[in-house]
Amino acid sequence: MNGNNIFDLIVQGYNGMTRSEIKVADYVLKHRPELPHIMIRDLADACGVSEATITRFCRTVDCLSFNDFKMRAAQVLSADGGSGPASGYDIYGDVQAEDSIEQKCQKLYHVGTQALQQTFEMLDYEQISKVVDCLCDAENVYCFGQGNSSIIAMDAWGRFATITSKFHWISDFHMQAVTAATLGANDVILYFSFSGAIRELSELGQLMQKTQAKLILVTRFPKSPGAKYADLLLICGADEAPNQQGSVAVKMGQLFIIDVLFHEYCARDFKKAQENRERTLNATAPMLL
C-alpha cells in the first residue's frame, strides 16, 4: 500500500481504532468525494460523534489536523482522475492536461454553470429579503473578506458604489478589526468566506458581539464556526477543496449572490438608484478615450 495515500492509512489502522473512530473511518471510506469540502462539525454530525473524536481520528491516521486530513484526501482524489473507489473529485473540474482547448472550454463551462445552478437552488428568498432590509437600513456597510474572498468583497463594494456611498471595502485585517470594534448600532459588515472557518472571521465576530452592529455572512457552510456569529446567512453553491482555493466556480456563485442583492436593493428605491447610477456614469464618461 502507498504510505502517502490517506485512505490506505485508514485501512491499515482500522483494526486498532476505537469504536468511535471506526464510525468515522466507515463514513470516510464510503463518502470519499465529500471529504475535500466537508466541515468538521458536519462530519461529526454525520458520524454521530464529537468534533474531538474527529480530531483524534485525524491524528490516528498521521494527520496534523482536520485541514491536513482534508488536504491529503483531496490530493488522492484529484490524482485518481475519476477512476477507482476514490473517484468523484478533480482539482480542475475534470480538466486533463491532454484535453484539447475545446474540451477544456466545455468542461469549465459545465463547472461554471453547475456552480450557478447550485447557488440558485440554495437561495432562500425570505433570507435575501431580510439581508436587503438590513443593507437598506444600515448607515454604513463594510465589505470584508480574507485572501481571495477579499477580492469578492471588493467586487461587492464596487457594485454598490455605483448607487450609494455607504458601502466601504477594507482589505487589511488590522483595519477591519479597528472598524469592527468601533461599529455603531446601525452599521453592518457584509463578510465573504467560502469555508466560514477562518480565524479572522471568528475574531471579528467576537469584536462585534460588543456592539449592536449586524454581521451578514456569505458562505458555503451554514454550520461553520464563523456562522455562529452571523445575524444573517446566505449560502453560495459550488464546492472547493483546500488545494483548490480561489476557484472561478466558487467566485461565480458568490458574484451571483452579489448581483441578486444589488438588484433587490435598487428595487427598494428604484428612482434614487437610477439617479445615482446616472451620476456615476457621468463621472466616468469623460475618462473614455
From TrEMBL:
Stretches assigned to the HTH rpiR-type domain: 4-80
Name of the protein in its database record: MurR/RpiR family transcriptional regulator
Keywords of the record: DNA-binding, Transcription, Transcription regulation
InterPro entries on file: Homeodomain-like_sf, HTH_RpiR, RpiR-like, RpiR-like_SIS, SIS_dom, SIS_dom_sf, WH-like_DNA-bd_sf
Keyword DNA-binding listed: yes
Domain (SIS) ranges: 131-271
Keyword Transcription regulation (UniProt): yes
